[in-house]
Structure formats: structure tokens, C-alpha cells
Amino acid sequence: MLTKADVVSRILGGRSWRPVTRSAEAYAPSNIALSKYWGKRNAELNLPLTSSVSLSLGAMGSSVSIQPRDDGRGDRVTLNGAALASDSAFSRRLFGFIDLFRGRGGGTLDVQAVNTIPTAAGFASSASGFAAVITAIDRLMGWGLTPCELSVLARLGSGSAARSVFTGLVEWHAGTDPDGMDSFAEPLEDQWPELRMGLLVVSDVQKKIGSREGMGHTLATSPLFGAWPATAEQDLAGIKDAVRARDFDRLGRTVEGNALAMHATMIAARPPLLYWEPGTIAMLRRVWDAREGGLSLYATMDAGPNVKILMLAGEQQHVTATFPEIMIADPTVCP
Ligand code: PMV
User: Fold this and answer.
1) 237: CA distance to ligand 1 center in Å?
2) What is the DSSP letter of 56?
3) Is the CB of 155 under 6 A from ligand 1?
4) What is the spatial distance between Cα 33 and Cα 97, in angstroms, rounded to a whole number?
5) What is the pLDDT of residues 167-206, one digit of tens each?
6) Cα–Cα distance, 243 to 241 (Å, whole number)
7) How far is the centre of ligand 1, averaged over its atoms, from the C-alpha of 38 (Å)?
């Protein structure tokens, strides 16, 4: 079976780990899937069973700054200004990813990571984190990788990171190649700059079951999972059509239905996987009540209890009046 290291060496070819500059920076936005990635065809390489499409979160994402250390000491990382222990989960995941590229002789690094998406509120920052890290490494080494290659490499960190290399509406192609070279993201041809994504915090408790474990368990045990790939494919096509036609209600209905269908596969898993808290249902009801009251907004959810709201820029003020706690991302803003 192919390993991540095999994929990295295919992409890097003869390029070596030799910094060409003293410091490199990169920013990547987080993203929320409109049609979800749920289920892998290859767990080692994070290859998905289906394609997915997402909206980037503008100024909510990850900034990374990397410098080679020349004092012969070990790797160092700070997250939002605080130094992390080398055996912390964050450090291990970060340097485990960097080691895919660094090889044995590579020197140690100083990494400063800043997340502008509230991680404590349970919003995933791994997608933007891995996308920013691989982009900064590419700059530090002067490799000149293409956006498509960066997307493939970011995917090795976490699947949804493949989409965070780009902004706006982004499609991640499932691909069919066993090595996943055709499983990368790219911006949709049709963009819709007025789309906005709002984040509503239901719970900031760290989830017990991550998305990797959650999707593996659902695929292996849920009697409803069989219907998921066809649903995902149909929804993706519907979303692209709705974007092309500028039909927000069709877009929103498909986005909301897709998220609920994904959660239905999890709830039917054995034992069940329910990411929702009582507050999630209360929040969904508030969204549906607001819609009945005339607001044009739709909900989506990921592997956690929080609710995200898709809306158009013109509706932002009304949505904020109804949900004063909402944080709204403008995908067109790039810090
Ligand atoms: O990329 P991961 O392993 O964090 O998985 C993301 C899974 C979902 O957020 C539930 C769906 C998606 O497409 O982002």
C-alpha cells in the first residue's frame, strides 16, 4: 500500500530540504463544506469516497510563520503566542506532518501559528493550519509547488485542508487514482461573492470522537451509509447548478439537507454517533423559526455540536438582529 511518504516523494521529485530564506509566512482560511466529505476510500492518504464543495472563511483561519533554527536545538512551536510542549498533541501532529517533507537530515524549525478562528469554541482549525503550514514550507524552501500540488500535500495532514489552499467556493475532487494525484481541490468556475457563513457556538467542549474516527465508524457500521455516496454526488451537482443559477433557496435547501443526511448516517451507526447537544436542536429550531419568519438562511453542521449559517450579504444585518452572538465570515476578505 502507498504511504504518505511515497506521495510526498512523487511530488517533490529531486527537491531537497534546504531553506532559501530566513523566514516564510503564509495564511490560509478555514472552510465549511456545503456538500460534505464523509467517508474515505483510502484512510492513509485521506482519499475521499466522494467529491465535496466548501466556502472559505475569509479572515478566520491560520497564519503561520516558520524560521529555520541555526542553534542546533530542537523544534519549537507557539500557538496564539503561547509556547507549547514538544509532546503536546498539537506539536506532535504539526511536526509529524512537517517530518513528511523534512526527511532525516533536515534542520529544526521555529514555528509560530496564530488561529483567528476561535478554536476553543470547537471550530476546526486543522484545515487552515495544514494548508498554511505546507504553503509556508514551500516558500521557505523555494520549491515553487503548484496550488494543485499544495492541495494534495495539505490533504495528507487532514482531508478538508485540501480545500483551504483556495478561497471562495472550492471543489475537492474525489479522484480515482490509487495514489490520489487526482484528488485535489480547486476554486469552482462559478463564484458567488455575496455568500456569507455565520458561526454559532453551541458548546465549546472538546469533542470526544474526531472526524477521522467518526467517519471510519459510520462507514463500517451504519446501515444508512450505503445511501450516502449517491446523496453526496447529487447534492454536489445541485449546489453547482444553484450557484450557476444564483438560486439561493435551492442552494440553501441542498446544503442543509446534505448536512442532516450526513448526521443521519452517524446517528444510525452502531453504536450511534451523535455530535448534537440539546443546544444544537434548540439552535436549529431558531434557524427554522427565523426562516418561517421571512429570513433567508440555512443551517449546516460538521463533526461537532455547533451550527453554521449560510446567508447572503444582504441578509447579514437581519440575521445579526436575530442571532446577536453570530460571527459572520466574508470569504472575499483575505488578510
Ligand atoms: O478533514 P477532516 O478530517 O477534519 O474531516 C472533515 C469532516 C467534515 O467537517 C464533517 C466535513 C467536511 O467536508 O469538512
Assistant:
1) 19
2) E
3) no
4) 23
5) 999 999 999 999 999 999 999 999 999 999 999 999 877 7
6) 5
7) 7
